[in-house]
Amino acid sequence: MGNKEDIAVTALDVANYFIFRSHQENKVITNKKLQKLLYYAQAWHMVLRKKPLFPDDIEAWVHGPAVRAVYDKYKNFGFSGISEQVEADGLDKLPAKDLLEEVWRVYGKFDADYLEELTHNEEPWLSARSGLDAHIASNNVIDRAVMERYYSDKLTRARSK
């Protein structure tokens, strides 16, 4: 699972990066979309860098993967765009900024509903919610090992085409 003490970045730090990027491009980013970007950043960081990007657990909520601390910080925006301004200070010091930029490029163009549907059809979220009805609330943690294996397999398949 990785040692939480050796990770200096939190999910909120990564969230700030995505909020900043969305504001730079005048794109709307909702809490729901932000949650999915965090999920994909964590997943691809584990595949490509062999360790978690941030120590926060990602839970398998009804609307897809979610980091509770980030959700709580931005829940007052509901399904509206996050209008809170984020300072650029410190964002350039984030590790794996190139990876975050790639996650933004690949997934940032999609809306929250599309990203929710995408995660709902992938093994890590499905596995964490195994046996639960689609509308039943859950705080089950998405297993990082399952995430890493699933996206590693996805990368291997893509490279072999």
What would you note in describing this structure?
The chain is mainly α and 161 residues long. Helix content is 51%, strand content 4%. The chain has 7 helices and 2 strands; from the N terminus they run H-H-E-E-H-H-H-H-H. The chain has helices at residues 11-24, 31-49, 68-74, 97-107, 112-120, 123-128, 144-159, and strands spanning 59-61, 64-66. The N and C termini lie far apart (31 Å).
Helix coverage percent of residues? 40-55%
Low-pLDDT sequence parts: 1-6
| Series of H and E elements | HHEEHHHHH
Question: Looking at the structure, what is the overall shape?
Answer: globular
The average pLDDT value, as a whole number, equals 92
What layout of secondary structure does this protein have?
Blueprint: H1 11-24, H2 31-49, E1 59-61, E2 64-66, H3 68-74, H4 97-107, H5 112-120, H6 123-128, H7 144-159
Antiparallel strand pairs: 1-2
Helix pairs in contact: 1-2, 2-4, 2-5, 2-7
Please outline what is shown here.
The protein is mainly alpha-helical and 161 residues long. The chain has helices at 11-24, 31-49, 68-74, 97-107, 112-120, 123-128, 144-159; strands at 59-61, 64-66.
